[in-house]
């Protein structure tokens, strides 16, 4: 939400009601700003204004950033007709203008960041920012030295014009590697492994830029990012 903000938009967002209901409520003289009843839905609010709706203070909570340990079976979308979404796991007020900064597939687990700060999420997800995302990958076939070398140099994905950017690839076991990439193409990790004649069996994201998934978060749990993490 940006300030100055129209009164009906503010009420609609914070009292969680459609804009038409917010306008009707304003007309019914249920809204005051700094102690004065306001009946115009066009009224422009500044962030310092004190707004009461039916006697209850409405306070904009500002920019918020959450890290979630995503389980399998949840989609990274605001709503979905078929599946549960990551927003079903967040019990927080006024989430309507939040989004996922860097989506994961339904069968991928691990670090997801959810925020209402579009500029910030653009900075961490845009390929131009060159921020690395790190994944633990379990594969169907053993990981060969040749495949590691190809991933490090860049591979050609189906339907793409350019090689992937150089990745950091480290073997962890015969069937496991840690892979860090600085792009976010559709199904990129799965397609990269496919390009080296392998297949992803399990995928887990452990880091985005400098932000590591908190190991105290069980699957499905979340917490606010710390001020230091937001700076990263
Ligand atoms: N790459 C994928 O293939 N899937 C994800 O969920 C994330 C990266």
TrEMBL record:
Residues 5-62 form the RNA-binding S4 domain. Its EC number is 5.4.99.-. GO terms for molecular function: 16S rRNA pseudouridine(516) synthase activity; RNA binding. It holds the Pfam family PseudoU_synth_2. The keyword Cytoplasm does not apply. GO terms for cellular component: cytosol. GO terms for biological process: enzyme-directed rRNA pseudouridine synthesis. It catalyses: uridine(516) in 16S rRNA = pseudouridine(516) in 16S rRNA. It is an enzyme of class 5 (isomerase). Signal peptide: none annotated. InterPro entries: PsdUridine_s_RsuA/RluB/E/F_cat, PsdUridine_synth_cat_dom_sf, PsdUridine_synth_RsuA/RluA, PsdUridine_synth_RsuA/RluB/E/F, PsdUridine_synth_RsuA/RluB_CS, RsuA_PseudoU_synthase, S4_RNA-bd, S4_RNA-bd_sf. It comes from the Bacteria. Keywords: Isomerase, RNA-binding. Responsible for synthesis of pseudouridine from uracil-516 in 16S ribosomal RNA. Belongs to the pseudouridine synthase RsuA family. This is Pseudouridine synthase.
